[in-house]
Specification:
The protein is built from 22 helices and 13 strands. It has 478 residues and is an alpha/beta fold. The protein folds into 4 domains: 35 residues; 120 residues, Periplasmic binding protein-like II (D-Maltodextrin-Binding Protein, domain 2, 3-Layer(aba) Sandwich), CATH 3.40.190; 108 residues, 3-Layer(aba) Sandwich (D-Maltodextrin-Binding Protein, domain 2), CATH 3.40.190; 169 residues, Lysozyme (Orthogonal Bundle), CATH 1.10.530.10. The termini are far apart.
């Protein structure tokens, strides 16, 4: 009888232990599941940042008249806006490196003209296609081709792929264009002399064909047609492949991110916005105007009419000229006679008092104006140098002070310290209280010495300049 009682008493204990153990295992698994769901989509949304890599070329991403532009860039901007995150663009024209860096989690997305292949499918997951294209032969028309009859012109060009036998064709190294030409050589049963180039990008090879430095290259048809606007002596009408899907890529272990992208791409691809963007970059005759502009970064490597002046002034003060160019774009949009209601003047919107402080009399000339502005930036940077030793962090304080005044930034630092934030860290610390300086509770606080200010404007000022600076660093050498 006693033994039976013991068993009866033991059963609840055993059941309790099993329930506790299973509950622990369930909670542990739930935590693991929660962590797993935070890969990619959830993580991106929580971080507030979308990291994408693009290639720098005449259609996907470039700077024109100081403004970042491009078909893929603008699509990514719409994606980031819909996700309510900040877009962070990186540039890498090497496809293999981009795949490796995506896998290594440097980026969340490869947003290039990626042709879907079986080999690539083993490495990454491709999105829904954004478009379709095919590979074409890029060749040069004969001299005085405008004077030839249509039939004579056609006879002078390669139209039959069999005629590529024995020809030298330059392609990017390890590219899908190389793979296609190897397969084509097999298909025609003749040797094509395929030369892989590891130095030049696709559009540089196209330009070399146009200039007569090489005879043939192969590229995507859409890119070829855009470049034909720039180089009318080129012919791009001979296909060397069937139509192929063009897509973006994500890591293979991110199904929720891939699903989100696929739904978004399907909807966006059918929108009026997409078709307007497509026309803007691939069909508009203004592409030729852009190409011939002195301030088209892809061909000329210039941002503004004042590049050399900015460089020379910044060289003396050890400042990155691209940062100053980004500031000028924000302050005056490169208009050297711009004037504000406060009396600020010129490219860098300097005040007469600042010019007097640095003893520069001709502050209304572009060079003098830039000199005053750079001197002021340097003076503010020196002021913060001791307490904010990190230069990347310090530039945020410097830019804010350039915009709203040193005193207001110092007020925000004092408020940060009072409310247990970090007075030498900008993001979510000092910038938070600078924005609060338009609220009576804060601008009337005893630690505040300079009163009310519209800190939101300065907060946006800093973000816009740093965003533009990042784009300039992507495509313009220091």
């Amino acid at each position: 009888m006693r033994r039976k009682i013991r068993y009866i008493l033991f059963i609840p204990v055993l059941v309790g232990f099993i329930l506790w153990y299973c509950s622990g295992r369930f909670n542990a698994n739930s935590e693991k599941d929660n962590k797993s769901t935070e890969t990619e989509l959830t993580r991106i949304l929580k971080s507030g940042k979308l990291k994408a890599v693009v290639d720098y070329n005449s259609t996907n991403y470039f700077i024109y008249q100081g403004i970042p532009m491009g078909f893929k860039y603008e699509i990514l901007q719409h994606l980031a806006n819909d996700m309510q995150v900040k877009l962070e663009i990186s540039v890498n024209n090497n496809q293999e490196e981009s795949f490796n860096e995506l896998i290594g989690k440097k980026y969340d997305l490869i947003a290039k003209n990626l042709i879907i292949t079986r080999d690539r499918n083993r490495k990454v997951s491709f999105t829904e296609p954004l478009e379709q294209s095919r590979q074409v032969l890029v060749q040069r028309k004969p001299e005085n081709w405008q004077l030839l009859t249509a039939s004579t012109l056609e006879d002078s060009l390669i139209r039959n792929q069999l005629d590529l036998a024995g020809k030298q064709v330059y392609v990017q190294k390890n590219s899908v264009y190389y793979s296609r030409m190897v397969n084509l050589s097999e298909e025609i049963g003749e040797e094509i002399d395929i030369l892989q180039d590891s130095i030049y990008g696709m559009e540089q090879l196209i330009a070399m064909v146009a200039k007569g430095e090489i005879d043939y290259t192969v590229c995507d048809e859409k890119m070829a047609k855009v470049n034909q606007i720039y180089y009318p002596d080129l012919d791009v009408e001979t296909p060397v492949s069937f139509p192929q899907n063009i897509a973006w890529a994500v890591r293979v272990d991110s199904p929720e991110w891939l699903s989100y992208l696929n739904n978004w791409i399907i909807n966006f691809r059918n929108s009026l916005t997409y078709h307007i963007l497509y026309q803007k970059y691939f069909e508009s005759p203004r592409s030729g105007v852009r190409f011939n502009s002195d301030y088209y970064s892809y061909t000329k490597g210039k941002l503004t009419p004042y590049d050399d002046v900015i460089r020379n002034v910044c060289r003396e003060d050890g400042m990155d000229w691209r940062l100053v160019a980004a500031l000028i774009r924000q302050e005056s949009n490169f208009v050297d006679t711009a004037e504000s209601w406060t009396g600020a003047y010129g490219l860098m919107q300097v005040l007469p008092e600042s010019a007097e402080l640095f003893k520069i009399k001709d502050y209304k000339s572009p060079k003098g104006n830039i000199q005053v502005g750079v001197n002021l930036l340097k003076w503010l940077d020196d002021h913060f140098k001791e307490e904010v030793p990190d230069s990347a962090e310090r530039i945020k304080f410097t830019l804010a002070a350039y915009n709203v005044g040193l005193g207001h930034v110092q007020d925000a630092q004092r408020l940060a310290e009072k409310y247990d934030r970090i007075p030498i860290v900008w993001n979510d610390n000092v910038d938070y209280f600078l924005r609060k300086k338009s609220v009576a509770k804060y601008y009337r606080d005893p630690v505040v010495r300079y009163g009310y200010c519209r800190g939101e404007e300065s907060y946006l000022f800093v973000n816009k300049i740093l965003d533009t600076y990042h784009h300039y660093c992507n495509v313009i050498e220091k």
